[in-house]
């Protein structure tokens, strides 16, 4: 296991796409695990009330456990809700419980409602190399909080017919956030997921996305692989569930690419 280069400055990466089922959660937990397995300290923040990222990292997220909800709405320090994941040494998770379902509405009347997560991360004393934020499938205040807190945006795109539909809406929201709340935010990475080599359509989507987003698209494409889909029901990432699977190897390669590319704060824009 050749270690990955650790970033000189902390990287905060939000994984967003308002479409459901495109691989946001899968990408977040598997990249986080791969980075941690290769010597990086990684915090995964679950910002989806469904708590799928918490589940996949084997972290308790039953209603009542300390969670990101209390951080966003109760001023609870982030480190008080962070727990270790047994998926890898140096991997941590701030879980989401179903309480978070109300947060979208409750946040509306809170002071500085768009910057709650950014402030919580700024107050974190625990030193981590990467913070990965898994967003819900919407462009509401939870996703806005994630975009305001991050320096980098990673968009997973599923290799299917309507792949690019809805992206315009996401990118307009990103521009608004850049203009008003977080000028540092950059769309740094696109990852193509659920690639099926048997269909010509998948290749067309890959081509179209690369044409549109250039070198922000990772060279590694994630194949459709049943081991990836099975892993969460065992509370595991695919990297420990089936290390030799194509799914595991592809997320490992994607994580290595992300680590080796690094991030230039004033590099590529949206
Ligand atoms: P999102 O978080 O965007 O809603 P998920 O990561 O939960 O999407 O993925 C949606 C579904 O597709 C899940 O059941 C997941 O296990 C499955 N899935 C994701 N990526 C793959 C893949 N590469 N191969 C097979 N199944 C996948
Ligand atoms: Mg999800």
Your description of this structure?
The protein is an alpha/beta fold. It has 11 helices and 7 strands. It has a 7-stranded mixed beta sheet, sandwiched between helices. The protein has a single domain, classed as Rossmann fold. Bound molecules: adenosine-5'-diphosphate and magnesium ion. The site of magnesium ion (MG) has 4 residues, from α1. This is Chromosome partitioning protein.
Short description:
This is Chromosome partitioning protein. The protein has 270 residues and is an alpha/beta fold.
Features of this protein?
270 residues, alpha/beta, Rossmann fold, 7-stranded mixed beta sheet, binds adenosine-5'-diphosphate, binds magnesium ion
Structural class: alpha/beta
Distance linking N and C termini:
34 Å
CATH fold field value: Rossmann fold
Counting DSSP H or I runs of 4 or more residues, the number of helices is 11
Helix content: 25-40%
Measured on Cα atoms, how large is the radius of gyration?
Answer: 17 Å
Uncertain stretches of 5 or more adjacent residues: none
Topology:
Layout: E1 11-15, H1 24-37, E2 42-46, H2 52-56, H3 68-74, E3 83-84, E4 91-94, H4 103-106, H5 116-122, E5 130-134, H6 141-149, E6 152-158, H7 167-180, E7 186-193, H8 200-213, H9 226-230, H10 238-241, H11 246-261
Parallel strand pairs: 1-5, 1-6, 2-4, 2-5, 6-7
Antiparallel strand pairs: 3-4
Bound molecules: adenosine-5'-diphosphate and magnesium ion (MG).
Adenosine-5'-diphosphate binds at residues 20-26, 52, 137, 193-194, 222, 224-225, 228-229, 232, 247.
């Amino acid at each position: 296991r050749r270690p990955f280069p650790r970033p000189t400055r902390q990287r905060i990466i939000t994984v967003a796409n308002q479409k459901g089922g495109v691989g946001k959660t899968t990408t977040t937990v598997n990249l986080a695990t791969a980075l941690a397995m290769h010597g990086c300290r990684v915090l995964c923040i679950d910002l989806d009330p469904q708590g799928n990222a918490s589940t996949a990292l084997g972290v308790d997220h039953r209603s009542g456990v300390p969670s990101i909800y209390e951080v966003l709405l109760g001023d609870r320090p982030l480190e008080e809700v962070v727990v270790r994941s047994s998926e890898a040494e140096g991997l941590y998770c701030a879980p989401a419980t179903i309480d978070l379902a109300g947060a979208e509405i409750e946040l509306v009347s809170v002071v500085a409602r768009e910057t709650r997560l950014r402030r919580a991360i700024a107050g974190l004393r625990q030193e981590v190399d990467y913070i990965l934020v898994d967003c819900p499938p919407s462009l509401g205040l939870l996703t806005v909080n994630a975009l305001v807190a991050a320096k980098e945006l990673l968009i997973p795109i599923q290799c299917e017919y309507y792949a690019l539909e809805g992206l315009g809406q996401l990118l307009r929201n990103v521009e608004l956030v850049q203009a008003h709340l977080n000028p540092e935010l950059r769309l740094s990475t696109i990852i193509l997921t659920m690639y099926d080599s048997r269909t010509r359509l998948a290749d067309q989507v890959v081509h179209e996305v690369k044409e549109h987003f250039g070198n922000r698209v990772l060279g590694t494409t994630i194949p459709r692989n049943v081991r990836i889909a099975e892993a969460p029901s065992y509370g595991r990432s695919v990297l420990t569930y089936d290390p030799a699977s194509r799914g595991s190897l592809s997320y490992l390669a994607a994580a290595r690419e992300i680590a080796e590319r690094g991030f230039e704060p004033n590099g590529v824009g949206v």
